[in-house]
């Protein structure tokens, strides 16, 4: 999963909440959604209350950018341009293949995910520093979420790279 929306919980949600200035309990509820929509509207983004790569970039939360198959937007288009492939803004199998090839050729884990380490190597954003890459990883002692039902937030989180902060995402119901 590389987006945050109402009903999700985990470390990436807490980081988003801290940036938005709402209580940072790590649970994406109505107040987080309201604050996110206001930010998106104010900054010319699609005010849908869903935080994805373009919103993370606008917020300066580069540690939360994780591009993978199914991701779309301007950030994906930048990635595709940097890889020298057709830049349609949709991360599909061709983009995943190009990412894996780039990673393999540049000493990165060839997993097909374009997270901060890959984006830093590509110099896609000058803001992605070694510190940002470090922040994108699970803190020592944090266990990744176990996968449950396919298609659930936990199952999607389990599809994140093994040490990615995204592996902490889970769903909640209130």
From TrEMBL:
Gene3D superfamilies recorded: PGBD-like superfamily/PGBD
Pfam families: PG_binding_1 (PF01471)
Peptidoglycan binding-like domain span: 22-59, 85-122
InterPro entries attached to this UniProt entry: Peptidoglycan-bd-like, PGBD-like_sf, PGBDSf
Highest taxon, organism lineage: Bacteria
Protein name per Swiss-Prot or TrEMBL: Peptidoglycan-binding domain 1 protein
């Amino acid at each position: 999963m590389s987006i945050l929306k109402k009903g999700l919980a985990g470390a990436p949600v807490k980081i988003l909440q801290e940036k938005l200035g709402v209580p940072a309990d790590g649970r994406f509820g109505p107040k987080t959604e309201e604050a996110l929509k206001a930010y998106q509207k104010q900054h010319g983004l699609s005010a849908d209350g869903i935080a994805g790569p373009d919103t993370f970039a606008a917020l300066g939360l580069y540690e939360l950018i994780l591009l993978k198959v199914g991701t779309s937007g301007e950030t994906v288009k930048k990635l595709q341009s940097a890889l020298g492939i057709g830049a349609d803004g949709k991360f599909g199998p061709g983009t995943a293949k190009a990412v894996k090839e780039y990673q393999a050729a540049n000493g990165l884990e060839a997993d097909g995910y374009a997270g901060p380490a890959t984006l830093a190597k590509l110099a896609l954003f000058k803001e992605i520093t070694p510190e940002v890459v470090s922040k994108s990883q699970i803190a020592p002692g944090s266990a990744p979420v176990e996968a449950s039902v396919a298609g659930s937030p936990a199952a999607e989180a389990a599809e994140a790279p093994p040490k990615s902060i995204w592996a902490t995402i889970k769903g909640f119901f209130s």
